[in-house]
Amino acid sequence: MLVLGIETTCDETAASVVRLGDDGRGTILSNVVLSQIAEHSPFGGVVPEIAARAHVELLDMVIAKAMVEAGLAFRDLDGIAAAAGPGLIGGLIVGLTTAKAIALVAEKPMVAVNHLEAHALTARLTDGTPFPYCLFLASGGHTQILAVLDVGNYVRLGTTVDDAIGEAFDKVGKLLGLPYPGGPEVEREAVEGNPDRFPFPRPMLGRPEPNFSLSGLKTAVRLEAEKIAPLSGEDVRDLCASFQQAVVDVTVDRLRTGLRQFRERFGAPNALVVAGGVAANQALRRNLHRVAFEQWRDDRLGRGGAAFPRVHRHAGCGSTRALAARRSAGAGRGRSRGAAVTISRIAVLGAGAWGTALANCAARAGAIVILWARDREVAAAIADKRENPRLPGIRLDDGVSVTSDLQDAAETEAVLLVVPSQAMRGVASEVADFLVEGTPIVACAKGIERGTHLFMTEIVAQCAPTAVPAILSGPSFAADVARGLPTAVTLATEDEGVARALAQALGSATFRPYHSTDVRGVEIGGAAKNVLAIAAGIVHGRKLGASAAAALTTRGFAELARFGRAFGAKVETLTGLSGLGDLILTCSSPQSRNFSLGVTLGEGRTLAEAQGKLAEGIFTAPALVEMASARGIDMPIATAVAAVLDGSLSIDAAIESLLTRPFKAEG
Fold first, then answer.
1. pTM of the entire structure?
2. Among all residues, which ones are annotated catalytic?
3. What is the C-alpha to C-alpha distance for residues 357 and 340, in angstroms, rounded to an integer?
């Protein structure tokens, strides 16, 4: 079945063509949306007459474009659908009149769709979500919690008694002098604000019925702003952050109450579906994932195994999706390449220092985190003491749970694989069977596999072919990250949408992941610098001086760059955080295991005496040299390191071989 959907309920003109398959799932063939923000901005809100006039001017063009993108003519359609309300009456008339005209001329049936019912049922169309499920509708005009039991069978559990959430955000934005639409601007300002500065009220908190009231909260913001006027930039940011936190606290409390009532009346819901433009707010979204996780955990414990919680986000008025064609961005199944992704549940596999640091980092960013340790006793000890002995003095964040059950850990939206490079294959193979298709697996090790000469994402692709391989690398030490010291890294995957989502899920004010699609370049930088760091450590241990150290690092980077270019790496990646940045850090700090290994060797001790903590460069050096030799890449420093490590060359002979090389042009 092919249906053209038309949406004109508010301030966006939209049309979409959807194909309904035999399995009841919908496929979006086209989705064209034109915003009217520019028209309404001078007035600080939506003007119904302007909206209706814009729909008249734009709708024909939007429909034509949607049909062209779908590759269809009106005669190919099985029906026309248009929003019939609730919405702005002028806009509704434009959409319905146009839909009726197309249906009449093409001799097709026309269906009038209830705007709110479309929100309620879209999760079934795009994701096949089974009844019953809980719907949280939060938009500029609506705030409701509903039990969706069947088509046409909806029970309202809670609603707002005054302002809708989106309306409150927009009004607060306007009173603080922020551009229209106010909601996204408030969220943007709140990112750098202090949410604890202003103790705004939490209306309805703890009430037995899951209703909302936001008018008083909005008034509290206005009174506080008037009290401290004129407002500085910091004042505005703190007001936004404090207001947003109050809304989040209220929403979480009201939704928990609504879900409790849902379970008491209808049993456990199969999903929490979040609809409306407010669902795009990341602070709210992260906390809704926590609520869904709690519901899943409680239901699973109570009835022996519930489906893992899914929070679907379906946009509404003020969003970017057409009626009857709203795609979920939260399920992680069948996601198109480059589509919007949100990640808020993360499994960290590997409970070493780096894994624990990344788990804390993800939790600080608002994610629900499961830290996996293979050894049951180790997992129990970390969970009990809330501290990992490999990171003494660092408390495990309250948002991190610990397990030794790999299947339990794998029920997640993204995996950070934080194990040594030579153990990557084993753990990736084990977890692959438990993952949902399309789950990102982020390799957090820097190296090349012995024997196969494969990089980490290539191993992931082999062992978990349905996953999305990614790599995290850059100048970072576990202790620094765990303590919240400022750190910047690179996170790369070929899918730009996944890269952005992962960076968002892990990023904070002190942990800055820069996303990239140059996977190979990031991997080469991380692998090669470990080998070069051993050489830098040897220079330090032999006391050859700062000049020699600088020369070694610089010429080492030349080798890294030659190798990278030969394997298709981008220049900006090699000179960025995961290349030159990581090389500088690792070649200069005793915190680096590879540098420390080199120092010990340079001081005259043997490799057996030098080995304490794992140094990835030991395994990477021979693989790197073999790969370089196969392609005719000149890497004298790396070659010397490999020879020292395998015992075929003494350190003094290696130094002499480098110092007696023929003079040549720099490059």
1. 0.58
2. 529
3. 27
